[in-house]
Amino acid sequence: MSTMTPEPADAIPTQEDVKGENQGRLIFRRFVTNKMSMVCLVLYVAIIVFSISAIGLGPIPGWWKYNYSDLNPQLNAGHPTLSFLPTWLGGNGISLGEHPFGQSRIGQDYFAMTMRGVQNSVLVMILIGGVGTIVGTVVGAVAGYYRGWVDAVLMRITDIFIVIPALVIGAVVGRTAGGLGVWVLGVLLALVTWMSIARLVRGEFLTLREREFVEAARVAGASDARIIFKHILPNAIGVVIVSATLLAATAILLETALSYLGYGIHAPEVSLGRLISDNQSAFSTRPWLYWWPAVFIVSLALLVNFVGDGLRDAFDPRQKRFKRRKMREFADRAKGAHD
Questions:
Q1: Would 60 be classed as within a structural domain?
Q2: Mind giving me the DSSP string for 235-265?
Q3: CATH code at position 131
């Protein structure tokens, strides 16, 4: 009769190992092991870095020779000079050319204009996502913690903003602040897009405020502000972060829609939505003036959405997705059993 050999001591997790594996590390590990989300995060950062390095930022110059506001002579009827086809295949080789994205109808370099549009659209996205998250978190936290008349007043204000379409509110804000600069427009739009986060945070606080660790903090004499921001909010941070990424993805679409309607960023500044609006009549004759900003709008919105999905899965591992191969195997087994 064989005897069971004891498991090696180094294979048994010690108390220090368990203690070191805190919640933050588990969430980070789940997120970085999500290949789709990590690829999307890298691509999103790469687009931002590329746009900044190309035309510069503020007093810092970029490596591209043209400015987005300079007028240049029309070359090749304004057609894009970007080439991906090697010479040995009959192309012009892999090169950017003089104007890789073409030129506008008045001779502006469209590559520089698109990169400037990416910078401004991303800035508006970050401002709306950041400021909107802060406002929504504070409103939801106060309403969910204090309840009673405080909750009633704050939630009725939230309901009023929710009932009015975001595009209508954004149009009013954009018409007033569109000419004041990207920063002012982004902050004011954030002040009218915080409602969804407020309701989610309120729901989390209504649940967490009844937990034992909150009662223990009250008995210990902790103030309301300390209980809200030091005890309850860290346990609701998952909802806040995921909601912030989804709000950022919605923000770029809101800015694009407002600029397209003429209520967003005004000249001489450039945004991706404004580029589409200015060149919508040239869709059939110069389609590249329409497609380049459209590609970046869709790419940025999708990348942020995929990053948000990865964060949601990292914070809540119960939300698992069925892999295609497993679904196919399950279908094959079901078909075999049926036969």
A1: no
A2: GGHHHHHHHHHHHHHHHHHHHHHHHHHT-SS
A3: 1.10.3720.10
